[in-house]
Amino acid sequence: MKRLVPGFFLCWVLASTAALAQDEEGSYGRGQGWSLLAGDTVGANQNVLSAQIGWPGLSVGVLHGSTSKLDLGGKFTFNWGQEGLVEVVEPGIKLQAWVRLMLARMQEASLALVFQPGPIFYFHEGGTQVGLALPVSLVAGIPVGSAIMLNLGVDVPFHVYFGSGGGPVFPLLVGGGLEYFIDRNLEVNFNVRMGPSLFPDAGRRGRSDAYFTLEALMGVGWRF
């Protein structure tokens, strides 16, 4: 009996260490241990290539896990709908930095802050409209088994246009999405956000001061 106690204790220590190691990597009870759109990061020293298409456009991006809680990267977007406004079909491009900071992680959920600043350009018949995007998002991730990660988010994709006819725009979008992990390093995703975009200066120009805004995108993420 005395010999069984040290052996049992040793087995318990080894099992606990393995569980803690898994949890530190983000894989213990949390899908495949990483996320592109939800609250988890892509993982320290990991890289992810992403692509999405839908409304309002097409985007490609890359993320690098600087730490277990911080992702840094960039994104290029070609839009055919101006910043998601369903009434405005205009081509444009965006060049953005991509920062994801995990604020908290529990067994049942995780929470992250996302910031994607960068210049925007939209091409109208009268010329090119230049602006600056400063979008901020708060997103929660909820793992469902080992293959699905759900997300719920509140986005404020604030942007401002320069020059004549420009001004700030304040969208407020809410919605959700999911990621399905085909294997440990490959996932497909769908994300939707919707809500109003407010134009504080529109009343002075005789226009409506709010437009319905929609983002509905599907894509893929590959960790390499």
UniProtKB/TrEMBL annotation:
Keyword Signal (UniProt): yes
Position of the signal peptide: 1-21
Keyword list, A-Z: Signal
Domain of life where this protein originates: Bacteria
Protein name per the record: Outer membrane protein beta-barrel domain-containing protein
